[in-house]
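Entry: Succinate--CoA ligase [ADP-forming] subunit beta
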Amino acid sequence: MNIHEYQAKALLKSYGAPVAEGVAIFSADEAKAAARKLPGPLYVVKSQIHAGGRGKGKFKELSADAKGGVRLAFSIDEAQAHAKEMLGNTLVTAQTGPAGKQVNRLYIEDGADIDRELYLSLLVDRSVGQIAFVVSTEGGMDIEAVAHDTPEKIVNVAINPEAGVTAADLAKLTSALKLEGEAKADAEKLFPILYKAFVEKDMSLLEINPLIVMKNGRMRVLDAKVSFDGNALFRHDDIKALRDETEEDAKEIEASKWDLAYVALDGNIGCMVNGAGLAMATMDIIKLYGKEPANFCDVGGGAGKEKVAAAFKIITADPKVEGILVNIFGGIMKCDVIAEGVVAAVQEVGLKVPLVVRLEGTNVELGKKILNESGLAITAADDLDDAAKKIVAAING
């Protein structure tokens, strides 16, 4: 689960991280009152969407030379003018895709006198099974580009969970970021705070880009991106309350209600599979035969008839879907249960696109019998290769 920048900063501030004063607003009429609460005279007006690259983004509805989704204002009136122009419009960034995201809220923040911009993130480094700091002196830039062009400028420091952030860890991090004086002292306080927040709130990513050193020598969290482990949200009602469903795909929201692993993609073949590995293989073979998957959908090993039907409805609700491939290996899940769920869903929502079903495993013959006797236009497949060929051929007409 993702949250907005202003929510992430409030969370980090509650742990003691140095964050500028700021106010979230939901209408342009709130802009003046919000700016008056800040010291000024420089204000930063930031679009709040779940995507990076906001500063370089473009609004669909505005002219090509219009400023991006993060703007400086040198007066309260200018802050309000920015708010009027940004709210309600669609911001397109490198991470939103061409459809962009509508800006429904802004964050007006006190400006900062920046001397240096640094990069810092915490994530789960699965290669060592520990939480790791990833830092670079190249803050404010696309970290993927830095990793590609100058990988030597990125430093990883894995943290032993029994010891926590040690003095040796801090020495490595501050050295990598070339910090001295007050900035170094601030970092030595900040880094354990960030690690504590990451662990206690079950984060999967905490990214600060940039983490700045101001001209007065002090450090500040200038931006913050936080994602949480969805499997741990049952422990954090305070975090669940921060969820903004307007930033999420409606199909993914519905899938979460059924505990389905569903991710919307840009292709035209809907996929319903049990098991993440099988789902990836199914998407790969669709691409092999020249088409693109419309989604990743893993119904899990123990899904019942109702869950299967729900998954099918979610897939058919996607207007991009021109065909559906159901690929099930019945181990824990039985093929007849899958067949019953598919038939029930088709009978309820109708079938407007080709449907190919490949079943294998427990009760496979009974599952095929249910499909064959349903009277529905369902094409059976013998194996995965056969299934992929048939669904691609059906779409191609």
